[in-house]
Amino acid sequence: MYIDQINNKKFNFILYLPIPLVFLGLIVVNFFATKDVNVEDIMQEMIETFGRNLTFAIAVGQLAICLVILLFWVKFIHGQSIRSLTTSRKKIDWKRIFFSFTIWGIFVAISTLILYFLSPENFQINFDPVKFLPFLIIAILLIPLQTSFEEYFFRGYLMQGIGVVTKSRLIPLIITSVTFGLMHIANPEVGKLGPIIMVYYIGSGFFMGIMTLMDEGLELALGFHAANNLIGALLVTADWTAFQTHSILKDVSEPSAGFDVLFPVLVIFPILLFIFGRKYKWTNWKEKLTGKVYEYSPEIENINTIGNDNE
């Protein structure tokens, strides 16, 4: 139902194209413009010029603006409701968003504490209340907008548009997950940790895409993504990450990647899918992930009703 609900005669493929072409084009241009440049040096120059908080606000604020543009385009150019871009339910289920945010936020906080107590030599206490409080306000205001844009664009706009065009659920799941991962290819983490970090980025895309298709809406993905970026940015920073912030801790260890990158994708994400599946009574996995997209009619509202209750 999440994709099917926009598969009707009003869907205009020509109007659909400009947003993904412009955004994905900017990603490609940015990649080739920075592939021979040390992104870490650029970040340090910006921090020296503007300070950490303003540099962070500029970086995150760009995607917050993109969210406004995307929602305007959907609402006034396509004539599609924001509710239908968000969910197949009759209204956005905020309980789902907060449940997903809470469960992942707690996991990020606990795992950070465990790492700190197991290897305290890898961290420095970075907490400065005078600098942290403005950062906290900026982060709470902007990070949910940044992550919401990425969800509305990849798991929303692209997922629905590609699904309608291909009449498939699997094809948009694959395309949006891979492109979501590739969007991060210019991040300084890739240069420091190597290509293996792309497994995490692309795996995260698949995880949130599966959640969206199985739950027939973006709510769980919106909550998860916001918690991942917000709680992570508040707790830990490092000189080689995309977000260099006035966080509570600073990671001073030599960056490396191995099974710790694969562990969330291979272990934690499947466990979360199991938890969400049990809570929201997901069924018919094969059809929802690989089945066809049907032309919308009132009758198909009964095809995928599981998970549309507001638990």
TrEMBL record:
Keyword Membrane found: yes
Molecular function terms, GO-annotated: metallopeptidase activity
Domain of life: Bacteria
InterPro entries: Rce1/LyrA-like_dom
Pfam families xrefs: Rce1-like (PF02517)
Segments forming domain CAAX prenyl protease 2/Lysostaphin resistance protein A-like: 132-231
Keywords, sorted A to Z: Hydrolase, Membrane, Metalloprotease, Protease, Transmembrane, Transmembrane helix
Regions that span the bilayer: 12-33, 53-76, 97-118, 130-149, 170-187, 193-213, 220-238, 258-276
PANTHER family for the chain: MEMBRANE-ASSOCIATED PROTEASE-RELATED, PROTEASE
Name of this chain's protein: CPBP family intramembrane metalloprotease
